[in-house]
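Notes, p. 3: input format for complexes.
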Amino acid sequence: MRVHFWGTRGSIATPGASTVEFGGNTLSVEVTTDAGHRLILDCGTGVRLLGMELMKAPGPLRATILLGHTHWDHIQGFPFFAPLFIPGNEFTICAPEGVGASLADVLAGQMEFTYFPVKLDQLPGKITYRELNEGSHQIEGVRILTQYLNHPAICLGYRVEADGVSVVYLTDHEPFSDTLWRADAESGKVESILHHGDRRHAEFMRGADLVIHDSQYTPREYPAKKNWGHSTYEYAVRLAAAVGVKQLALIHHDPLHDDQTMLEIERQAVALAAQHAVGLRVFCAREGEGLIVHPSAAIVQPVSEQRSGTSRQQKRLKVLVVDDDINIHLLAELALARDYDVSSAEDGQACLEAVCKDPPDIIVLDLNMPNMDGLTVLKRVRADASLAELPVLVLTGSGDEASTRTAFEEGATDYLTKPFTIPQLSTRVTTCLARSLNRSM
Ligand SMILES: [Zn+2]
Ligand SMILES: [Zn+2]
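Output follows (441 residues plus zinc ion):
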């Protein structure tokens, strides 16, 4: 399998003398299997260069475009991808479902006449749209696993398996928890990871021959950019080392990081990987460079095979928000009312009564409340066999390790710490619900 980096920059293109080495074009990575199937991961401005290269080859082109999400830095090169303008060329474009509009409509938005002279439906190339949920998919004979990432938008990570190797693409994503390892457990092991979201994220890259991972910020920069949806090299290296990844390419470089800064980041990431002594090769992805990924040891399967299908719902799902703070209810209304029927309860007792009367599809649950605290509510809910699978997203001001750990032990589905942003809350509710629907199908 061949991998080529056509765009490595995150957020916005940053051409210029100071970014020559690592590149200024936004994300686009080409993966080609030995059988000749071409996958294009993201269509940032880098995809324009790939398009120019592909135009040199004779004959019609077939390719699969995998979009993690549709923020600008992942789609801005799409209208400038020349093969789209050639009749006979065929493309399948995949992206996560559940963003509130169809994939075709979202892509057509940036090509309205106000922004671009050619409309999406005027492109001569044939385009098929495919909206994906979390699971396992066969696309043109290639096995592709998907998993939701932690970003203020519905965003999928991809694991491509072909030719006896696996390449995993994980951007845009940030740690679910400030604390990676539980204090009472040995760090460096998957089972010692505190937040179930981070553990699932690590398992998704288990044994991969190449992981391409978001590392926009340095550990020093990250606290000021928390909740923006991006990782540090430290997080990526520690997780990759814990699950036997062979090579780690850091990507989604911050626009503020010039080549000198990138070299220093690369030096620090390599030094950190060396501390783990697990033979993990780490580098910062450079625009224009590629590599051939050879089979190494046997592929270790990641997460158990999940059913692929569509979780698109006809009926509106019900979200019960439980918090004694009126402001949280107002924010939840803003975040969720467009897509869901939102109801509220002011304390734990009122929550249980509401669940009894009209069971919701998900509970968003505060921990510290009068009458009955959230943990007691969680225990009561889980004690009822009919509610054992009901998703419960804990939304709390308690970001400490003990609270996080206890909530997961008592059966929390996810754990989000205040202060949070509106896109974050809607994304986490949507991913919890998508998983739950996928399981029950
Ligand atoms: Zn991005
Ligand atoms: Zn993004």
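The pocket of zinc ion (ligand 1) is lined by residues 10, 71, 73-74, 172, 252 (CB under 6 Å).
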